[in-house]
Write a structure and sequence with these properties.
The structure is a single chain. The protein has 379 residues and is an alpha+beta fold. The protein contains 8 helices and 22 strands. The radius of gyration is 33 Å and the shape is elongated. Belongs to the PHYHIP family. Its interaction with PHYH suggests a role in the development of the central system.
Amino acid sequence: SASRPNGHTIDSAVSHPWCFPQIYLKLISLSVFTLEPNYALFLTEMDAPLSTPCNIKICEVTCDSFRIMWDMAPEDSTRATHFFIDLSRKENRDPNRFKHRDVPTKLVAKAVPLPMAVRGHWFLSPSTDYCVAVQTAVKQPDGDYLVSEWSQIVEFCTGDYAMEHLQQLLDKAKGSAGRLLKFSVFYRNQHPDYFDYVRECGGLMRPALKDTSGSHGSPINGKLHGVFFSCNTEFDTGLPPRDSPYGPLRFQIPAGYLLNPNICLYFADFYCMYTAYHYVVLVLAPIGTEGDAFCCSRLPMLDLTSNPFLTFTAPKRQGEEPLYCHASDVILEVLFTEPIPLDQGAVEQISGHHQLMSLTTANAKKDPSCKVCNISVGR
């Protein structure tokens, strides 16, 4: 062993309690910077800060997925091992007591070529505004991450249900429809102020924009105008129910005015509001109208003479009346897309003694946990 001026050899110094730290550090330093220059360069690269992602772009948005891409320094493209995605619902401007609560979601993904797909119905809802930011990261040997700054926040909105999703919802609704019962009138309940306003405006019940009740992904929510009617009847009388949550005055119109061979019938939604009974939303649009054009590319069309919800059967013999039937085990909400003249029907006081205001569906959200009316995409 080599001798030192103080009398210690290198071998003996390694075991010496006072000399070991100084000599050990010198050996490590010699190893890294003199004997292994590539490893030193590796450490320098690993510790270099990552650039902040910029120019965030969202594309190929569906009801429960999207693709995201961004710009970063060329050297970071090869260094990054992981991407962090911070996704949260934009603050709801119209809170509703039926709406389930969402929490911010941070996603960790291994770095992949951009654009990167983000999908998952457990944290993405249809037709919903979201905020998203991204971070790039390098996983280090000790398991920690070297991360960039968060990018700017970008907002985007998920899409409505596509036709394939509505078909899934329709298949579920068919299983709950029950048998068909005969009916003869469509009816609409409202308060006296509503009918006074209609008379002041020329006697036409004009289409109004569909609210956001029901499935959040229904393509008609907030987009299609119409006038809502009911047609369900009571089992014992075959007549409309005596009570209504919508008002004490009822407008009734012969079924043939809204349901005839010149009308297209579309399925729009199937939902419940934390209850045992379910609602089916149907659209009646006269052929060739603006409402028909809107629905034909977005909603499944039903055969007017053969479907589980609402049917028209033409007379077989001269002098016979058409037959109109509705599903017995679901509550039908029928949206007619054109104005309705008040003089085509009659307005009368209902015979019920109480108004069931808790049953109104205005802006009510569906129960996201119901296994009967939910599909495995969106809510």
